[in-house]
Specification:
Radius of gyration: 17 Å
Strand content: under 5%
Low-confidence stretches: none
Largest sheet: none
Mean pLDDT: 92
Number of domains: 2
CATH class of the largest domain: Mainly Alpha
Number of strands: 0
CATH architecture of the largest domain: Up-down Bundle
Length: 188
């Protein structure tokens, strides 16, 4: 799954609904390729639609969390879960959104070594806790986030991003999903 494939030359393109083909074409136009995660989900269009809807809502929709914050959460979760695909893809997004390739690399390796402000550190510590031991989350953990300016809506957003990437990491790892080669060179 590492070869460059565009929406226009997918071998299954003729069998895809128009809306799916259009979505893949938009991805190709915006980022220059069709992410392998989308190609993998073409196996089951119902799951493709569900994945895209949830991803778009959590990562691109209205939120009290910035896009960079959401991508940082994705990287922390993916690093803990050792998901090769998501570490590479979302590490590239952190590099691009932050303009800081060092931050992107630190996030993938160990976010605790990154130069982060206290608010971001608290958010990522919470994301790590939810990833590693969600049953151990207590009100005091949520109160720490509130003390750093996060609303209850923001806290739910953090939890939702963690949950989504915990699921995605497992699917990507268990299927042997490989990151697109283009991710490796992005924002360096």
């Amino acid at each position: 799954m590492t070869e460059r494939v565009t929406a226009l030359d997918l071998h299954v393109a003729a069998d895809l609904p128009e809306r799916t083909r259009k979505y893949l074409e938009i991805c190709d136009e915006k980022i220059g390729f069709v992410p392998n995660v989308l190609r993998a989900y073409l196996f089951d269009l119902g799951k493709f639609d569900a994945f895209v809807a949830m991803y778009n809502d959590l990562m691109l929709g209205e939120s009290g969390l910035s896009k960079l914050e959401r991508e940082m959460i994705a990287v922390v979760v993916s690093s803990i879960n050792r998901c090769w695909y998501c570490q590479v893809a979302h590490g590239a997004a952190v590099r691009e959104l932050s303009g800081d390739p060092v931050l992107g690399e630190a996030m993938v390796m160990n976010y605790r070594v990154a130069d982060l402000d206290p608010r971001t550190r608290a958010m990522l510590d919470f994301a790590a806790l939810v990833t590693e031991a969600s049953a151990k989350v207590e009100e005091a953990d949520r109160e720490t986030l509130r003390a750093h300016g996060f609303s209850d809506h923001d806290i739910f957003g953090i939890i939702a991003v963690v949950g989504f990437f915990s699921m995605s990491n497992r699917i990507a790892s268990a299927t042997g999903m490989q990151p697109n080669l283009e991710y490796h060179a992005m924002a360096r």
